[in-house]
Design goal:
Layout: H1 3-7, H2 12-20, H3 26-39, E1 44-47, H4 49-65, E2 76-80, H5 108-115, E3 119-124, H6 160-167, E4 173-177, H7 186-192, E5 195-198, E6 219-223, H8 226-236, H9 245-248, H10 252-259, E7 263-266, H11 268-271, H12 278-293, E8 297-300, H13 304-316, H14 319-332, H15 342-349, H16 356-377, E9 381-385, H17 394-399, H18 401-412, H19 416-420, E10 425-436, E11 442-452, H20 458-472
Parallel strand pairs: 2-3, 2-4, 7-8, 7-9
Antiparallel strand pairs: 1-3, 4-6, 5-6, 5-10, 9-11, 10-11
Length: 480
């Protein structure tokens, strides 16, 4: 196996298997990852080459001695530039913080990854202050595939660089956050054909992570597989990734047995909405037919609490906007505001006059609706599109601020309720849409679906998502 072969379907599991067979070493992989990182357009704010090579050297020695720390030892990953990494500034994607004082210590989650032997390639780009669902960044540059030219699509945000680092084969796992943009892991996963896992807010420590809206901020990995997200979840909670082996040992038959005991809810009012494109809708319904064929129960009915959340947001706004404004008011009231991304600045300023009464009403309603959502599901898993549309073209959004604002809201509409309800959620690929490109060619753009369960049911959700991954990748259910 050579490096390029490994990267056509790179996962942490395939790399660990190659290390075990001595077909690759962590040092070889790290060197090539770093070369790709340096050539990636807008993906990284900082490449941590010396750290990566030192970590890879130690991991290589452990694999050669037959004493790896666990299945994630020597696996490369990236960190959204909201996480403190010792010796580097935490920029939050902002020109204002590009020369901030370097962090004196790693964030606890970064330290957990190092303890598991993982290799830090660098810090990835994002929407400034993590405050956009589309991923544009005028200072560090918007992360894109340089081969696409005028056909470039928005990467999704705010964890834009984390997604592109995985999609471009730079690292198998990118750590993002699902912050006040209310879809910052799930949107870029959907736009790039990846798996993105939004954890319930208290599952992982947020110490040493630059905050946007503390009541909403949470962490999530982006990867090519649910299996890698499960292993990474283990690492982020202080494990080595091997605790997930029992879940990962399943096959197609085991997946069918798991799914046969599950109920999935699809809300027709959401899926059949005119906001949802035909390809997104039909790809989701195809997957639901596969689920039924595998023995799962798929029920079409209203998810009332989700509609109540959306109505509340439409009428009262987004309470995280008030928290984001409070976090950045000092900057907005100073000359520093002129150096901010104008789109981000406008969004922050829009919350300046939100009353305390409105903010508190949203907070109080949140607790009531979190409980209502759990009652609504009655033990089932909710399935809905991750985004209502595929990734739009980048250039028109860079040129038209009003189009940007409308598209940003439309992009986040299906992920915002999950953030409001603090649900664990997994976004995963559901198919493709054929779209005409500006040069007359045809692009195949990924579509995504998301699975949601009540707050705190992360482990159960990940197990169900893994079973779906086995099912959807089975030749029994390949599209003709």
């Amino acid at each position: 196996m050579n490096f390029d072969e490994a990267h056509r379907a790179t996962t942490a599991r395939t790399l660990a298997a190659a290390y075990a067979r001595r077909e690759l070493t962590p040092m070889e992989v790290a060197e090539r990852c770093l070369a790709r990182a340096r050539n990636a357009r807008g993906v990284f704010t900082q490449v941590t080459a010396s750290r990566a090579l030192a970590q890879a050297e130690r991991a290589t020695a452990r694999w050669r001695a037959g004493t790896p720390l666990g299945p994630m030892d020597g696996v490369p990953l990236t960190w959204k530039d909201l996480f403190d990494i010792r010796g580097t500034p935490t920029t939050a994607g902002s020109a204002l913080l590009a020369h901030a004082e370097p962090a004196k210590a790693d964030a606890p989650l970064v330290a957990h990854a190092e303890a598991a032997g993982m290799v830090c390639i660098g810090k990835t780009n994002l929407s400034e202050f993590a405050y956009s669902g589309l991923g544009l960044n005028p200072f560090f540059g918007t992360p894109v595939d340089p081969a696409l030219g005028r056909r470039a699509r928005v990467p999704g945000g705010s964890s834009s660089g984390a997604a592109l680092a995985v999609a471009l084969g730079i690292a198998p796992i990118g750590i993002g956050t699902d912050t006040d943009t209310a879809g910052s892991v799930r949107v870029p996963a959907s736009f790039n054909g990846l798996v993105g896992y939004r954890a319930s807010r208290r599952r992982h420590a947020m110490t040493g992570v630059f905050a946007l809206a503390p009541s909403l901020d949470t962490v999530g990995p982006l990867a090519h597989s649910v299996a890698d997200c499960i292993a990474m979840d283990s690492v982020l909670r202080g494990g080595r990734g091997d605790e997930a082996r029992e879940l990962l040992a399943g096959d197609f038959d085991a997946a069918r047995r798991t799914l046969a005991r599950q109920t999935f809810i699809v809300d027709p009012a959401i899926v059949d909405s005119e906001r949802v494109t035909a390809a997104v809708r039909e790809n989701l319904r195809t997957r639901m037919r596969w689920l039924r064929a595998a023995g799962a129960t798929v029920v079409e009915r209203e998810a009332k609490s989700l509609h109540l959340v959306q109505a509340l947001i439409d009428s009262h706004g987004w309470f995280g906007a008030s928290e984001a404004f409070a976090m950045h008011q000092a900057r907005l009231d100073s000359p520093q505001a002129e150096a901010m991304d104008p789109r981000v600045r406008r969004r922050l300023e829009a919350a300046r006059d939100v009353s305390a009464a409105r903010y508190l009403h949203l907070r109080w309603e949140r607790q009531r609706l979190i409980a209502a959502f759990e009652r609504d599901l009655e033990g089932a898993t909710l399935v809905l599109p991750a985004t209502a549309h595929t990734a739009p073209l980048l250039q028109p959004l860079e040129a038209d601020d009003e189009l940007f604002a409308r598209t940003n809201l439309a992009t986040l509409r299906l992920t915002m309720p999950g953030s409001f309800l603090d649900t664990p959620a997994v976004a995963m690929p559901s198919g493709v849409e054929r779209v005409a490109a500006p040069d007359g060619s045809t692009d195949l753009l990924p579509t995504g679906l998301q699975l949601m369960r009540p707050r705190g049911e992360d482990a159960r959700l990940l197990q169900i998502a893994l079973s779906l991954e086995h099912l959807f990748s089975s030749p029994h259910f390949k599209e003709q």
